[in-house]
Amino acid sequence: MNRETEGQRGKGAEGQRVRRALNKFYDKAFTVIGLLATLIGLAVLLTLLIDVFMDGASRLGWQFLTSYPSRKPEQAGILSAWVGTAWVMALTFIIAFPLGVAAAVYLEEYSKKNWLRDFIEINIANLAGVPSIIYGLLGLGLFVRALSLDRSVISGAATLALLVLPIIILSTREALKAIPSSIREASYALGASKWQTIRHQVLPAAMPGILTGTILAMSRAIGETAPLITIGALTYVAFLPASPISTEFPFITLRGLLDAFSVLPIQIFNWVSRPQKGFFTNAAAGIIVLLIITFLMNGIAVWLRHKYQKKVRW
Amino acid sequence: MKRILVSLITMVALSIAVKAYAAEVIKVDGSSTVYPITEAVAEEFQKTEKDKTKVTVGISGTGGGFKKFCIGETDISDASRPIKPTEVELCKKNGIDYIELPVAYDGLAVIINPKNAWADKMTVKELKKLWEPEAQGKITKWNQIRANWPDKEIHLFGPGVDSGTYDYFTEAIVGKEHSSRGDFTSSEDDNVLVQGIATDQLALGFFGVAYYEHNKDKLKLVAIDDEKDENGKGHILPKYENVVNGTYQPLSRPIFIYVSKKSADKPEIKRFVEFYMKKGGELSKEVGYVALPDNAYKLGLKRFEKRIIGSVFGGKGSQVGVKIEDLLKKEM
């Protein structure tokens, strides 16, 4: 743009003024368009929130969070659903985060540019676009049937982990690419090994980007219904997965991983399709809880990003 | 590092060891139509069992439920129609014997918009003319059904083609299961159909009568005449008594649970099924279905105790116009 205006300098002051006015106009116009785009998005979100709150806010409360599903709408709650969601999300993170980051570090820092890397890259990019129900079918065949983990928390979490893995790998790679190579070279110059450079310089600097990508991927996973229904997550579950901390020796148990479970989106989906009006209110209240959990997760992402950004000293 | 490894191994070993001690779980899956009844029964059953037994209920549809049931993944399958030949075959291949128990009646309601003043009475023949595959693209206006009806478009709504409800309706009206015109608005979610018909004066659709009961102010029932005088003369509405006494034909159907014979020998499954046959009538009424006559539950219980396997419908899928009591008696 600059060079263009410079080139026109010789053509006289008049042309230059018109040009400048036009540029100013475009500048303003784009600001307005950008603002409109933002406002439309916000307005849609706000309408959605207000609508859901009006329908469901009256139903929210301690009883709603601590009751199991019931045939009576006013007694029904989402205890098994939200605990199931919490279990599945925590496990999905535990499985997908290390795998995703390690894969991205390998691809970005270690692998040489050859046909194998190209092949892997194309596949990961394609996997990120595969419809989620396909992952459900894979999970059903692999985890539920072949590994006979049954319709358990661990099957659900592993399926969702596969679903978010490509997104985590892609966003981690972007974050790693954004680290200037001068940082790596400086580290090498001081005698650090490759792993030391990655461990102490590259990863901490890339962490804000990695975490943002990961939490966005998790926010997608939390709303997924199709793959979990495919692997056979249940609608009526009136008990919780066994707690990981027990009163008996050895005080830690992974039994809960193999328990049956339900999640919030499935419970909401079921209530929406019931004839009684009371269940409709319950569904709206369930949506509010799901939204709050999503907002909390995004909040944590913002906080973590902020925390890690402060640590970067250059 | 070593410590982490050791603790990991112990944890995995523990989780495997502990698996054997887990509480008894009864696994039910299948039809979304039967789900509310099974949910209610499971809820009450778990109260009486005090955490000793856990019941899980999934919704995979009648067909999806049988796919899991017939490879031994579930103990009980909810079904809104009798088992089909392909499913019988699958069960046989995997050595799964089943006991068929009817649990309630479900009436299918044919629904129009309250502003529709003309079509509140229809015959089965007219419905067939409207829904059969040949009608696609041809029968598009109300006056093509009856000449004195308005010369206006007709908008059709129906449940998803994977549902037992669709299968039964097509069997009852068109005469062939799973066969109808394709140009209608279909949704797996019956509330979408309710909304569609409630906002469209020219709409006609069908779904379970429970959805009408909860949206009476927005919808209008169509009285149906099957032109067979032996089961009630004239146009009949899907009212409670008409479903029970078998005059709301052909659109009322029994719905079932199928119990795996292998599972039936487990004490907790036995208790659950007995509880189902005892409380099923009362609870199905509570969640919006029509209970079977008391005697049908007693016959069902007997059938379960004697472990009579197979389907009273001969494994041929939906059948129209059956009185469940007669069928059960025949096999005793």
Task: Please work out how many helical segments of chain B DSSP would assign.
Answer: 13
Helix amount of chain B: 40-55%
CATH-defined fold name of the largest domain in chain A: MetI-like fold
- Run of helices and strands of chain B: HEHEHEHEEHEHEHEHEEHEHHHH
Radius of gyration of chain B: 22 Å
Overall shape of chain B: elongated
Helices of chain A, by number, come to: 12
Poorly predicted spans of chain A: none
Structure description:
The complex is a heterodimer of chains A (314) and B (332). With 314 residues, chain A is an all-alpha fold. Chain A is built from twelve helices and one strand, in the order ααααααααααβαα. Chain A has helices at 2-7, 13-56, 62-65, 79-110, 115-127, 132-146, 153-177, 181-189, 194-222, 226-231, 264-272, 277-311, and one strand spanning 236-237. In chain A, helix 2 (13-56) crosses helix 12 (277-311), helix 8 packs antiparallel against helix 9 (194-222) and helix 9 (194-222) packs antiparallel against helix 12. Chain A is globular and about 80 Å long. The two termini of chain A are 31 Å apart. Chain B has helices spanning 2-19, 35-49, 61-69, 85-93, 124-131, 164-174, 190-198, 209-213, 240-244, 261-264, 267-286, 294-305, 324-331; strands at 24-30, 53-57, 76-79, 98-112, 121-123, 155-159, 185-187, 203-208, 220-221, 223-225, 252-260. By secondary structure, chain B is of the alpha/beta class. Classes of the chains: A mainly alpha (314), B alpha/beta (332). The interface between A and B is large, with 32 and 44 residues.
